Amino acid sequence: MTTRIGVYPGSFDPLTLGHLDIVRRGARFVDRLVIGVTSNPSKEPMFTVAERLEMVRRETADLGNVSVVEFDSLLMDFAEREGATLILRGLRAVADFEYEYQMAGMNQQLNDRIETVFLMADVSLQPIASRLVKEIARYGGAIDKFVTPAVAADVAAKLVR
């Protein structure tokens, strides 16, 4: 029997309830889901890659078929190394779709054996974006509707430094 492996890539800076929703739902479609935590040179991270790895591992520890690893390469190279046949991506809005559609097309050109699967964000979680969570927190706003209590504490601790 073939093991179905999927990858869910992202910067997860910080991990939001929207990310966790996609992880939990996406993990049902595969035997093993590998969350790939990467740096994104176009973003200014609040957390180091090591801190984000720890955060994601802590928040997904209850999911037996999920692992969390760092990657710093082309997504398709990472997916191939992991033996994945599926890339999982979450969509919140039309703007996400346009970007993700273009990326899926480019990735298909690089390796047409790996499919990209899109999951729509839960309606209640659609407005959540890591960038906005950080901005709200930096201005002293409450972020507990957007992240787990532990992640909210991580963000608060980072802002105190």
TrEMBL record:
Q: Which Pfam families match?
A: CTP_transf_like
| Chain sites annotated for binding ATP | 11-12, 19, 90-92, 100, 125-131
CDD domains (UniProt xref) = PPAT
Enzyme nomenclature, EC number: 2.7.7.3
- Per its UniProt record, what Gene3D superfamilies does this chain match? HUPs (3.40.50.620)
Feature type site, description Transition state stabilizer: 19
Supply the SUPFAM superfamilies for this chain: Nucleotidylyl transferase
Protein family per UniProt: Belongs to the bacterial CoaD family.
Query: Known HAMAP family for this protein?
Result: PPAT_bact
Protein name, UniProt field: Phosphopantetheine adenylyltransferase
Q: Which species is this UniProt entry from?
A: uncultured Sphingomonas sp
Gene name per UniProt: coaD
